[in-house]
Amino acid sequence: MQNDAEYARNYSALAEEFSLARKVIRARRLANLTQQELAEKMNTTQAVIAQMEGGSLPSIRTLERLAAATGTHLKVSFEQATK
């Protein structure tokens, strides 16, 4: 079994990916689109949308297409790391 510290490190490492997935889901829902409808607007497949919503990291270009399809604005930033 993993110890608690190792689990916490692994979970923390995935936090940003899951945060992005939640934001993708939120943008789609606010645009009142199904996964299939969003995929059609992005000229991709529903499976690609499901992968993004499941935590797969999309390219910046894909995120730009998602923003355009959902009527949102893509903002990428770098912030000072906490120690």
Provide tags for this entry.
83 residues; mainly alpha; 434 Repressor (Amino-terminal Domain); elongated
Gap between N and C termini: 27 Å
Helix- and strand-based class? mainly alpha
What is the general shape?
A: elongated
Percentage of residues in DSSP E strands: under 5%
Low-confidence runs of at least 5 consecutive residues: none
The rounded Rg comes to 15 Å
CATH C-level category: Mainly Alpha
Number of strand elements: 0
Number of discrete helical segments: 4
CATH architecture: Orthogonal Bundle
The biggest beta sheet reads: none
Would you mind describing this structure in some detail?
The mean pLDDT is 90. The chain has a single domain (4-70), classed as lambda repressor-like DNA-binding domains (434 Repressor (Amino-terminal Domain)), CATH 1.10.260. It contains four helices and no strands. The chain is mainly alpha-helical.
Q: Mind sketching the topology for me?
A:
Layout: H1 4-30, H2 35-42, H3 46-53, H4 60-70
Helix pairs in contact: 2-3
Short description:
This protein has about 80 residues and is mainly α.
